[in-house]
Amino acid sequence: MELLDRYLEAVRKHLPWQRQDDIIAELRANLEAQLEEKEAALGRPLTKAEAEAWIKQLGSPMHMAAPYQPQQYLIGPAIFPIYRNVMKIALTWTAAVYCVANAVALLTKTPQMIDVVHAIANLPFVLLTTAAWVTLVFAAIEFAVAHQALKLPAVCSPSVAWSLASLPPLGTQANGGKRPKSFAVAVAEVIFGFIFLVWLLLVPGHPYLLMGPGAFLIDALPYQLAPVWIPVFWCAVAVNVLQLGWHMENLIRGTWQKPQPILHYAAKAIGLIPLVLLLTAPDHAAILLKHPALDQARYGATLFTINTSIHWSVAIICAIVTIQLLWDIAQSILNANRKRAAAM
Amino acid sequence: MGYSMTLTENLFENLRLELRRGCLTLAVLAQLRVERYGYTLRKALADDGLVIDESTLYPLLRRLEAQGLLASEWREEEKRNKRFYRLTPDGELIFMQLLAEWHAINASVTASLQTTNNNL
Asked: How many angstroms away from the CA of B55 is the closest CA of chain A?
């Protein structure tokens, strides 16, 4: 039957080439047996319309051939959970190493805007490259597992060692009644922490990033920043580097939902150091005259007012932060005591 | 309304296929305790109420053979070469285990239905 021959030829094109002849021979035998039985039942050969209807109900040649293809995933369901975890860790580490390396590179020279833009613009490509490598490695593992299933140990089974300590805390109970921090928020903390750090490093060379157009008026003023701002600035950079490192570590270890009150209070306390440095500046001098010998008589009184205002502003901020910190610590201690009493 | 009906129908179809997949394997193994070739196997299944497409049955036979549960041989019958399949000893063993599992599942579902029917 010509129609059946044409159908089988079309099916052949979609079959694995090593087994084409064998599969087609078997299909032919089965379909011809079916055809013979139909014709025997009718007592005559099928008409053209009947033959077309019969072939049509077999399904398209591609549909007929598809189940003969080996079932192959790029990354199958057995190893996909491992792939997803490894991808998260690889991307986080890549982002962390990239951020630190670029921050160090920027610190070793006067940061230029173009360098920062270049570093930020390159990050997606670096992450894409990492993702591509991880995917490639897992696709190779999937291929090996699929083709050498009996020779490879199970890569994902219920017996894989795991620790009860790795279980996450129960959301609101473990976080003082607040919703636990989501992965997106934890990632955002790292990204915005990095952007803020870069911005902070750029400010000395590009003051308009802090003061906007007003930065261009500073050159015309008779005042300049006192040397105390140098340790204050680097101290602020160090605090931000520490916080960024802390957030990155939490992300890498998957502990961003775990309450870490001591680290939280330590970060707040360290954040007080730049303020204390400013408070203890000699003569409370945060601002100096560019030419004291020339301008002291004219601008001396204004300078004193500015420095006094800065000193008291910083003192008030320092007091607020300290009180808030002490209040938070006291609340934590009270909560801990309440829990202990409730457990007894 | 029409959209939600389509979703429901799709969901039912997917679940039905999922349910049938394992049962088909069991039915094919049951039939192949006696040697058969593809078309007569398909007819036997249909006669027992299990209609199965050619594009499902014939590749399934290949897979079961690749897994070592079936053995096949080309042989001439009624002036035509046909590929005959039968259970291997491993296939026989696994068929018995699957059959026991199927009976256990069937009994559990029946018991669950009975319990829920009594509570309704």
From this structure: 5
Q: Six-digit token pair at A261?
A: 């009150």
H runs (alpha helix) in A108-156 = 113-147
Report the alpha-carbon distance of residue A95 to residue A89 in Å, rounded: 10
Residues A58, A64: contact at Cβ < 8 Å? yes
| Selected residue of B25, B40, B55, B76 to mutate for chain A interface (largest A Cβ count, 10 A) | B55
* Cβ-Cβ contacts under 8 Å, A66 against chain B: 55
In tens, the pLDDT along A233-250 reads 888 888 888 888 888 877
Which pLDDT tens digit goes with each residue over A51-82?
999 999 899 999 899 888 877 788 888 888 88
Rounded to whole angstroms, the Cα distance separating A333 from A50 reads 86
This prediction has a pTM of: 0.55
> What is the DSSP-derived secondary structure letter of residue A73?
-
CA atoms of B100 and B7, how far apart (whole Å): 35
A29 contact B CB<8A: yes
Side-chain-facing half-sphere of A86: CA atoms under 13 Å: 15
Q: How far is Cα A96 from Cα A80, in angstroms, rounded to an integer?
A: 24
ipTM (interface pTM): 0.80
Q: Do B38 and A29 touch (CB under 8 A)?
A: yes
Task: Find the CB nearest B55 among A32, A33, A63.
Answer: A63
Count helices and strands in chain B by DSSP H and E runs: 4, 3
- DSSP for residue A256: T
Q: Where does residue B115 rank: exposed (0-12), middle (13-18), buried (19+ CB within 10 A)?
A: exposed
Residue A50 to chain B, least CA–CA distance (Å): 18
Question: Measured between alpha carbons, how far is A182 from A175 in angstroms, rounded to an integer?
Answer: 12
